[in-house]
Amino acid sequence: MTKLRHMKKSTRTSFFTYGLVIVAFLIIQILRGTVGIGSLLEGQLIPICAYIVMAVSLNLVVGISGELSLGHAGFMSVGAFAGCAMANGLQNLVPSEPLRLVIAILFGALMAALAGFLIGIPVLRLNGDYLAIVTLAFGEIIKTILTNLYIGVDANGLQASFVNDTTDLAEGGIALIKGPMGVSNTSARISTFVAGFILVMVALIVVFNLVNSRAGRAIMATRDNRIAAESVGISVTKYKLMAFTVSAALAGAAGTLYGCSQITFSANKFDFNTSILILVFVVLGGLGNMWGSVIAATALTILPEALRQFSDYRMLVYAIVLILVMLATNSPAIRSFFLRIVRGGRNEDGPSRSAKKEAAK
Amino acid sequence: MSRLERKSETKMVPVPSHSIVPERDVNKAPILECSHLGIDFGGLTAVNDFNLTVGRTEIAGLIGPNGAGKTTVFNLLTKVYQPTRGTILVDGKDTHGMNTVQVNRAGIARTFQNIRLFDKLSVEDNVKIGLHNQIKYPMWSGIFRLPGYWKKEKLAHESAMELLHIFGMEDLANHRAGSLPYGAQRRLEIVRALASNPSLLLLDEPAAGMNPSETADLMENILKIRDTFHIAIMLIEHDMSLVMGICEGICVLNFGEIIAKGTPSEIQNNPKVIEAYLGSQKKEG
User: Fold this and answer.
1) Which one of A119, A123, B112, B282 has the minimum C-beta count within 10 Å?
2) What is the reported pTM?
3) Cα gap B242→B247, rounded to integer Å
4) CB distance B153–A360 less than 8 Å?
5) Per-domain residue ranges for chain A?
């Protein structure tokens, strides 16, 4: 513990978050191996991992880069469609399921990063509310495009069409993306909870390491004071775009993980409501607070399932709980109580009185 | 104050551009040459026909009544505003068409009249952000913690501490910049600007809000910075003891136009300046 206190605050926060995720993973694995955790929760494990990654990646844009994005589910759907189409297309070539999942996730992340980069170029010229509305619009555009996209693969290679299904697949061909029907995973569902856990850890490591590096400091500088950042030679657009692209890549990876855990899914799954839900995770967990995002995503994904006993009143109770939690986390007294726990009883916010006096001289 | 009392006025000599620079800088190319610089906001001419040459290691002062256009000149030099007319040469290079980032790379760093620190970040991180273009490594190196990251971060930490040492602020390195007292925030802004390795440092009212003893310390430090880094410093200031104490060449601005240029004693005795700025009866100094 004494060693922990000598660490930098940022390092301590990241280690705390890694520890939190690892402990939660071990507890669940032990429970699954012994008494079981119930089929409801069992089915939620992979979506929880996917939503954690979504929340952490959106926190990079909203909390660290300071831009409100309302289209984050769009990148998740790009990742889900691209990754799962890849996984289905490769099922004869790559028999090993874990390897296929890794390839699918990397491909999904790459495609989402590409989408994020291309969308980021026009979007990041805007500021504040305007940027938020435009990201919302791009999220809807992605959804509409994917709803109208048909892609199939057969012995003759890849076939694609738009709006009307004109793909004419030969014997043994696979329809990878079927327009409004979305993607059906023809083989077994290849996502596993262990893969989800690893992805969460990778996302956290990427985000924490990015934040505590030269690029991360530049991103936070553009958030805190754009003019001052430019005055010391930091290109604001470049670093906003970097945060946006990395975030989109992580969202794409989460999308692939989620998609490959479903029997079938369509683009409607990743609509505006999903984007808002992820934003709720981020705001509830605290802007820039990664472990907060992890806990908020987990709690709010389990909650609707846990409230099944209220049947018809389920979403009403969910909404009330959400309001109460928001009020509670916003209260200064409760917040400082949690801060005290996390910081180990020390207030590091301001310089001590003597240090202030020294500086004033 | 002891050093300042000992300091005799620098001999200023004319250069081909009809300006004066300190004698020691006369054989070196000037760091800044402005000619016929001007900007209009709509129909209002904020700055007009601004001509100034700043020597390689000169401490130059820009003074004038409120609203004279002093900060606008700084904003023109750093391309926060694009000038309507005229040229700015930084180290002999025309900055036409450059933006703020490119001007910083060309060698100009500045502080702000209303302090602009990265409040939520630590003092050390503020300085490291200043070092952004001095100590570089790619994003990937940071994400995957490659050897380059550790090497460059160590270097950045050492450089940041060295820079903070100028103002004796090493002890504050881990505090949040926004939580520092006012004077320390002003000093941190200067350190951050210095971190970007400028050849011309622009200080916008560095002594604002400081008491006389803090101002005296600041004057010592400005001289120390000039002598350590061998850079030119241009400052806007209302505190006449600071301006007259350390500036070698002074330029007086009124209603966007230069009304006088010269050494401190010339400015103090210039009737136009006394009338426009210092008041028609009382002489400060």
Assistant:
1) B282
2) 0.88
3) 8
4) no
5) 40-291, 307-345
